[in-house]
Amino acid sequence: MSRQEAIILPFTRVEKRSRVYATRRCPACGAPSPQRSTGTRQLRDLGVGRPVALEIHYSKHRCPRCQKYFNAPMDDLAEPGGLYTQRVRTTALAKVLVDGLPLGTVQEQMLREFYVHVPPTTLDRWVVEAGEKDRPEGVL
Ligand SMILES: [Zn+2]
């Protein structure tokens, strides 16, 4: 999977975060749902002086009413399945959409300023997704 191949730079400082809950409400039906297990994911973050990665320890839940499996909410930290924090995404997107910089330049600046490697293919996907979110429904 190419998305798993995001480069982890040497000298990365790993900061641990916890999103572990005993119980969460089911996002589908609202029923209190006990923790079934836990998982860990790593997110590349904006670095200060050196690369930073967040290691998120999170709980996995199963709804007793509708049997739906779900993870502790962390959309504020990262997109579902994403390898980068929202801070990285919004900072890079601003360089493209507000500053109008080409993707190659944004990649260089993110690496130089924040020690985070964001490939142009990922930047391109973020730009497309941002455009789709802002686009009114039914307009192509
Ligand atoms: Zn449910």
Low-confidence stretches: none
User: How much strand?
Assistant: 25-35%
- Molecular shape: flat
By secondary-structure content and strand pairing, the structural class works out as alpha+beta
* Number of helices, counting only DSSP H or I runs of 4 residues or more: 3
Give the cofactors and ligands. zinc ion
How many domains in all?
2
Percent helix, as a range, is 25-40%
Main sheet properties: 5 strands, mixed
Q: What is the arithmetic mean of pLDDT? A: 90
Rg, rounded, reads 17 Å
Please describe what this structure looks like.
By secondary structure, the chain is of the alpha+beta class. The chain has 2 domains: 10-83, no CATH class; 84-134. It contains 3 helices and 5 strands, in the order βββββααα. Strands 1, 2, 3, 4 and 5 form a 5-stranded mixed β-sheet that branches. A hairpin with a 6-residue loop joins β3 (32-45) and β4 (52-62). The protein is flat, with a radius of gyration of 17 Å. The two termini are 30 Å apart. The model has no long low-confidence stretch (mean pLDDT 90). Zinc ion is lined by residues 26, 28-29, 31, 63, 65-66, 68.
What distinguishing features does this structure have?
single chain, 140 residues, alpha+beta, 2 domains, 5-stranded mixed β-sheet, 5 strands, 28% helix, 27% strand, binds zinc ion
What's the topology here?
Blueprint: E1 13-19, E2 23-25, E3 32-45, E4 52-62, E5 69-71, H1 86-97, H2 103-114, H3 120-134
Parallel strand pairs: 1-4
Antiparallel strand pairs: 2-3, 3-4, 4-5
Helix pairs in contact: 1-2, 1-3
The protein binds zinc ion (ZN).
Zinc ion is lined by residues 26, 28-29, 31, 63, 65-66, 68.
